[in-house]
Write a sequence for this structure.
């Protein structure tokens, strides 16, 4: 007798923002699908095994529906949810590993709107994407979600267990969610279910049940089957499959169900199995996504997206601080100019609206749909270009709004503050100063910062300077530095801390010595120089099936192909430039497919930071190709601490089984620790890395890393659908790194250091040329203590300013938030204090009223 006693059939549509049609069309239609589900729910039986039941795979279309419909339609949806005929899940969209903790929180925050409408949200469903960031586990739990369904697409990667399997996923804080690793939702079409091919559906479902019966690791008497595919308009045809199946297989009845209903059954059975002594797997670590290499198919737009989210965080903080301090009289421009200040000030409601617009555009770009379903079969079609134009617009729209908000926030904050008799109440400084030509620097974070900033001066020249000791939640007004001086050509530069040697012929740095430790940072035995651009292409004459048959066969089932790699090289000697607080060496190189590469290494006086910029001019190319920037650190027996959304994990050790180890999509930072010492490394613009060497095509089950090498994987087009088939990305890519000095000179790094280093790259000091009133040159009056234990995010909300604090440590923290910013704030001029207890890897927040 079969162990499976019932089949639950889940009707839903897989939510792609695009793919089958333009994102512009698809996004609107998903909201209309909600209305169609209401219509179908009123037809046919309302109870019984063949009643129409539906799951909204993601929350966004329901939120859009609720924002624009009549009270009667809202009530209709609420009644269906209460009756168990409709479920709304908690994931905003099917996300990639690009979004960070702030973006995920912005998405989960919107679930309050569903619950306020009387729609409970208990389950998150994730389709297609075969990975999700570890930090989403505590984020889901904070949002009231403790079940996750992953209808994972096994193409081009591996699932952590055989599909289907139930397991507990433990977050960095020790909290768990139950995961149902489901079959691919696309079986709904492949098996004939959604088109009511009842004979085909019966054969495929019977074979599925037979396999489940053969598995010793399947302790459930229930099978979950999807009736779905990409962007399918809902219909009731799948109900015919239920009726047919039950007519011929009464011993294993099938019924329609919502995902909430199904998870209620499966979680209960998992707990019963554990009570019997059966083992339900418990896993701890990152679910690194095999499909994340697609982020390298559009390097320029991914970089724009990452800049946009940095600007939004600073904008939200500066506008929040200004709201607390009170507006002064900022300098306003008379032209809506990119390089000018604001021409008017947004109202409080306009600020909230525009910040929400940035959130929306960021989430739409971070969603998993990159291109059309003919991206590879017809890469030059108008539809493929139009589709990408719509997708890319999400990145550029978020950048436009975030940048404009950040500029306004800087101008307003510098001029902000209440006065009594000409004295600023927050700082005690006399008011009325005017900067005629200066650099304004904003630190929107909880600790004082000293770091390099680059500023455009007089609309033309880009100048780099070190902004030192910029106070937490404060500003600094600095003089415009002198232009750097060209010292001529040479191969070596040095400061009191570092000595670097560049070889243009090898395209990079061949020696970089940290004088504080004596550590040679460059692995001089490596084939390629440090910072060199390396192009990777399939070996000539390859007979690998991805070349000869189908690009889809770049996958674990067909290991390989073999690749050849060539580093860029140059013939011109490097040039050396000196400025007041740094020295830079620049060199030009090229390869066969990249005609111009301009690289610049900067060393700073009195600062451990090292910056590398790589500006690439990359023409369009449709042949399979990868582009790397190499960082072969001379560290043996390395361990890699990798920053993901809301967490840091130890590569290999803290990963789910069979998740991607050939490549990783990081937030910003990596800590490398080896026998010789440790290094903190980060990328502003490019998220993809290969660790310990080149691994393209290995499809490895374990991370093979003998040396502490980080290869920044800028670009690739090794795909078969969805991502872009052409390879280009002319832009500048920025990196920052520094060796860690410990008590014994060479140091080590831990999870918390990597998390803070990554946040500082995400939210760097923002600097801009400024001319106008200066009322704030110092701290704003907001303090977080102890600041080293948490990461802070400020944002205006209705009636106040929200301060969200993220505990990055393994212990509970008591944090004091204090404000001494003046009488304009509710409560008078007396200082205000709030004490928050924040659990390990948890979040605490308070709202400072206006």
């Amino acid at each position: 007798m079969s162990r499976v006693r019932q089949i639950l059939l889940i009707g839903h549509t897989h939510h792609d923002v695009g793919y089958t049609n333009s994102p512009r069309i698809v996004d609107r239609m998903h909201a209309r699908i909600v209305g169609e589900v209401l219509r179908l729910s009123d037809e046919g039986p309302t109870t019984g095994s063949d009643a129409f039941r539906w799951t909204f795979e993601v929350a966004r279309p329901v939120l859009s529906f609720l924002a624009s419909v009549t009270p009667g339609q809202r009530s209709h949806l609420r009644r269906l949810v209460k009756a168990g005929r409709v479920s709304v899940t908690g994931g905003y969209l099917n996300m990639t590993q690009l979004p960070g903790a702030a973006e995920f929180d912005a998405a989960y925050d919107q679930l309050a709107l569903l619950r306020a409408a009387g729609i409970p949200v208990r389950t998150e469903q994730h389709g297609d994407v075969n990975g999700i960031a570890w930090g989403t586990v505590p984020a889901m739990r904070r949002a009231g979600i403790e079940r996750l369904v992953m209808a994972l697409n096994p193409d081009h990667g591996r699932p952590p267990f055989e599909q289907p399997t139930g397991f507990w996923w433990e977050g960095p804080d020790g909290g768990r969610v139950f995961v149902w690793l489901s079959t691919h939702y696309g079986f709904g079409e492949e098996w004939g279910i959604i088109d009511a091919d009842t004979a085909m559906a019966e054969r495929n479902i019977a074979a599925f049940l037979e396999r489940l019966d053969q598995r010793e690791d399947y302790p459930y008497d229930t099978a979950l089957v999807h009736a779905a595919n990409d962007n399918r308009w809902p219909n009731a045809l799948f109900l015919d499959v239920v009726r047919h199946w039950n007519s011929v297989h009464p011993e294993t009845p099938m019924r329609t169900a919502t995902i909430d209903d199904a998870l209620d059954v499966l979680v209960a059975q998992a707990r019963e199995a554990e009570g019997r002594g059966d083992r339900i797997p418990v896993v701890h670590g990152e679910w690194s996504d095999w499909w994340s290499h697609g982020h390298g198919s559009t390097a320029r737009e991914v970089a724009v997206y990452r800049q946009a989210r940095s600007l939004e965080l600073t904008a939200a903080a500066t506008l929040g601080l200004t709201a607390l301090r009170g507006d002064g009289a900022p300098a306003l421009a008379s032209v809506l100019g990119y390089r000018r200040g604001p021409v008017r000030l947004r109202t409080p409601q306009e600020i909230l609206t525009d910040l929400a617009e940035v959130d929306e555009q960021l989430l739409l770009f971070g969603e998993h749909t990159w291109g059309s379903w003919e991206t590879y079969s017809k890469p030059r079609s108008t539809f493929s270009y139009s589709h990408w134009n719509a997708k890319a617009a999400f990145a550029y729209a978020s950048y436009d709004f975030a940048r404009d908000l950040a500029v306004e926030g800087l101008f307003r904050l510098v001029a902000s503050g209440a006065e009594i008799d000409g004295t600023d109440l927050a700082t005690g400084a006399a008011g009325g100063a005017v900067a005629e030509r200066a650099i304004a620097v904003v630190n929107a974070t909880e600790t004082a910062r000293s770091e390099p900033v680059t500023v455009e001066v007089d609309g033309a020249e880009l100048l780099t300077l070190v902004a030192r000791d910029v106070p937490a939640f404060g500003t600094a007004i600095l003089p415009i530095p002198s232009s750097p001086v060209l010292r001529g050509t040479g191969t070596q530069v040095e400061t009191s801390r570092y000595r670097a040697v560049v070889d243009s012929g090898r395209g990079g740095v061949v020696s970089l010595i940290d004088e504080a430790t004596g550590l040679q940072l460059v692995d001089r035995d490596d084939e390629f120089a440090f910072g060199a651009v390396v192009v990777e292409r399939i070996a000539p004459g390859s007979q690998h099936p991805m070349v000869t048959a189908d690009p889809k066969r770049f996958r674990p089932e067909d290991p390989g192909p073999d690749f050849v790699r060539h580093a860029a090289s140059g013939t011109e000697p490097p040039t050396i430039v000196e400025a007041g607080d740094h020295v830079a060496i620049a060199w030009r190189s090229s390869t066969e497919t990249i005609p111009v590469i301009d690289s610049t290494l900067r060393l700073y006086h009195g600062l451990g930071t090292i910056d590398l910029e790589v500006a690439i001019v990359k023409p369009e190319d449709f042949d399979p190709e990868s582009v790397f920037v190499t960082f072969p650190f001379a560290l043996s027996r390395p361990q890699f601490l990798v920053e993901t959304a809301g967490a840091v994990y130890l590569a290999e050790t803290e990963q789910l089984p069979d998740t991607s180890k050939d490549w990783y999509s990081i937030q910003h930072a990596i800590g490398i620790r080896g026998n010789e010492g440790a290094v903190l490394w980060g990328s502003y613009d490019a998220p993809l890395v290969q660790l310990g060497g080149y691994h393209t095509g290995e499809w490895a089950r374990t991370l093979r890393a003998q040396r502490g090498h980080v290869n920044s994987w800028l670009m690739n087009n090794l795909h078969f659908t969805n991502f872009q088939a052409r390879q280009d990305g002319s832009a500048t890519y920025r990196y920052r790194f520094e060796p860690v000095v410990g008590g014994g000179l060479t140091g080590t790094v831990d999870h918390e250091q990597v998390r803070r280093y990554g946040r500082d790259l995400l939210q760097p000091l923002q600097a801009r040329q400024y001319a106008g009133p200066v009322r704030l040159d110092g701290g704003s009056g907001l303090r977080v203590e102890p600041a080293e234990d948490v990461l802070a995010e400020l944002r205006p909300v209705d009636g106040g300013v929200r301060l969200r604090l993220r505990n990055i440590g393994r212990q509970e923290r008591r944090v004091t938030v204090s404000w001494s910013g003046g009488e304009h704030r509710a409560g008078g001029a007396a200082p205000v204090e709030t004490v928050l207890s924040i659990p390990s890897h948890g979040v605490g927040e308070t709202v400072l009223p206006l």
Observations:
- DSSP finds 15 helices and 45 strands in the chain.
- The longest strand covers residues 625-636.
- The domain at 492-762 is CATH 2.70.98.30 (Beta-galactosidase; Chain A, domain 5).
